[in-house]
């Protein structure tokens, strides 16, 4: 049975609805990226090296669960489509498991570490079960690359807003709700973000539609993986995604340590209800929001992969500049940090648009529609990048002799400074250089869209 493709522009309502799904994800993932390492070391009482090792070891599960979820989603059939049902079904388990992550039971040192392994693994499984289908939904929301780029823009605008909400209000809420009990503050704050996540995921479910209906999926798992690995540009994109996410998360996971120990910020209010952590994080995420808003305009004028190269290299240069700024110049640090994260807003918006370009290119080349597998494997790269980016600062803290909640040695302060600036710069530089080998350009996408439209409409 041939497919009918709806090439009409997506409505503003649907683009907003789709974008809200990543806001829901980032109420948690933004929280984890910014505060999880700090929570484990300074609040829950796990050593930096143990926490870092846990973040990496648990990715073994993701190596199986992410592609498995993509295969499951590609083979799902329901009255709501292939990918949308998971937004409805998984939202509540996802929210509950996120709360358990910050429950902070008073166990022994070994018990705390086991609890961290179990709860972090479970919440990442729930994230996989809801976010892989959500990401794959982009490939079937419209058959037109330009419309998918617009939807991707909305996605990362709202992703930025979600992380911005976390960055701006998490530490004030922790202090407000917990008082002197930081553990209680984290526990109560995550409840608020959990409830919001459920409601927003359900809005995404209600406002989006699947328009590209592929033929019945009857190929084998081996064939699907084989088709995916034939797509050289997808492989390059995945590797680049890993590198840039490592760079960003390494920097964000370092913010609290950099401010608390290197700049000497004590968590007191600097502006209204906001402390230095909220200010630096929020300004950076406003930059990311601006970058996401700029992306469609830039993508119309330039090749996507050329933009990714330039933005990565520019970000690396800005990190080098930030490294030499004196610690007394907090305002200048904030400005440079914000411009750096703005470039990431462009990069990440383009990457997810390019993932769906790769999915369509793969279907055009092999005849197999594997959007779920394509995006799920890509999502694993980002989750792996997030885990490595969160773990590397933990290993650096241990290497340089960091001791939680104590005055730090000059060696430890040097390590904190390096992990905030130099370490991320290396990964952004590598990501920019790798994109030189990406090959799917505007001309190729135009041919792919034309041919796929003819196939799907039976022309």
From TrEMBL:
InterPro entries: MFS_2, MFS_dom, MFS_trans_sf, Na/Gal_symport. GO terms for cellular component: plasma membrane. It comes from the Bacteria. Keywords: Membrane, Transmembrane, Transmembrane helix. Pfam families: MFS_2. Coiled coil: none annotated. The chain crosses the membrane at residues 20-40, 46-65, 86-102, 114-144, 156-178, 184-206, 234-259, 271-295, 307-326, 332-352, 373-402, 422-440. Residues 14-443 form the Major facilitator superfamily (MFS) profile domain. One of its GO terms (biological process) is carbohydrate transport. Gene3D superfamilies: MFS general substrate transporter like domains (1.20.1250.20). The keyword Transmembrane helix applies. The keyword Transmembrane applies. GO terms for molecular function: symporter activity. Belongs to the sodium:galactoside symporter (TC 2.A.2) family. PANTHER family: MAJOR FACILITATOR SUPERFAMILY (MFS) PROFILE DOMAIN-CONTAINING PROTEIN, MAJOR FACILITATOR SUPERFAMILY DOMAIN-CONTAINING PROTEIN. This is MFS transporter.
């Amino acid at each position: 049975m041939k497919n009918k493709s709806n090439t009409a522009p997506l409505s503003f309502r649907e683009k907003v609805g789709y974008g809200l799904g990543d806001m829901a994800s980032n109420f948690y993932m933004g929280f984890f990226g910014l505060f999880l390492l700090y929570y484990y070391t300074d609040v829950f009482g796990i050593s930096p090296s143990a926490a870092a090792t846990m973040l990496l070891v648990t990715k073994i599960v993701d190596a199986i669960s992410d592609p498995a979820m993509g295969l499951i989603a590609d083979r799902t059939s329901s009255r709501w489509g292939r990918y949308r049902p998971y937004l409805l079904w998984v939202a509540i388990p996802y929210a509950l498991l996120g709360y358990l992550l910050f429950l902070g039971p008073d166990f022994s040192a070994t018990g705390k570490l086991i609890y961290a392994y179990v709860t972090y693994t479970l919440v990442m499984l729930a994230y996989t079960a809801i976010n892989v289908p959500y990401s794959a939904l982009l490939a079937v929301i419209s058959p037109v690359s330009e419309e998918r780029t617009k939807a991707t823009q909305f996605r990362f605008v709202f992703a930025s807003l979600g992380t911005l909400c976390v960055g701006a209000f998490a530490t004030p809420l922790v202090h407000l709700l917990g008082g002197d009990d930081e553990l209680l503050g984290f526990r109560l704050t995550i409840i608020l973000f959990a409830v919001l996540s459920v409601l927003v995921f359900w809005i995404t479910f209600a406002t989006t539609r699947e328009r590209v209906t592929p033929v019945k999926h009857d190929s084998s798992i081996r064939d699907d993986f084989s088709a995916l690995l034939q797509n050289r540009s997808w492989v390059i994109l995945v590797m680049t995604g890993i590198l840039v996410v490592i760079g960003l998360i390494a920097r964000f996971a370092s913010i609290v340590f950099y401010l608390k120990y290197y700049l000497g910020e004590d968590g007191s209010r600097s502006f209204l209800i906001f402390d230095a952590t909220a200010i630096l994080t929020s300004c950076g995420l406003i930059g990311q929001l601006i970058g996401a808003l700029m992306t469609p305009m830039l993508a119309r004028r330039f090749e996507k992969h050329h933009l990714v190269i330039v933005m990565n290299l520019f970000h690396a240069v800005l990190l080098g500049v930030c490294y030499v700024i004196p610690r007394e110049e907090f305002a200048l640090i904030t400005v440079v940090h914000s411009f750096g994260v703005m470039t990431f807003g462009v990069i990440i918006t383009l990457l997810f648009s390019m993932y769906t370009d790769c999915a369509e290119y793969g279907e055009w080349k092999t005849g197999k529609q594997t959007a779920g597998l394509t995006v799920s494997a890509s999502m694993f790269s980002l989750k792996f990048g997030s885990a490595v980016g969160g773990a590397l600062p933990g290993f650096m803290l241990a290497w340089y002799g960091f001791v939680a909640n104590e005055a730090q040695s000059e060696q430890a302060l040097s390590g904190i400074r390096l992990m905030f600036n130099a370490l991320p710069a290396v990964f952004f530089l590598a990501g920019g250089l790798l994109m030189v080998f990406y090959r799917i350009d505007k001309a190729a996408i135009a041919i792919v869209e034309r041919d796929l439209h003819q196939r799907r409409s039976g022309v």
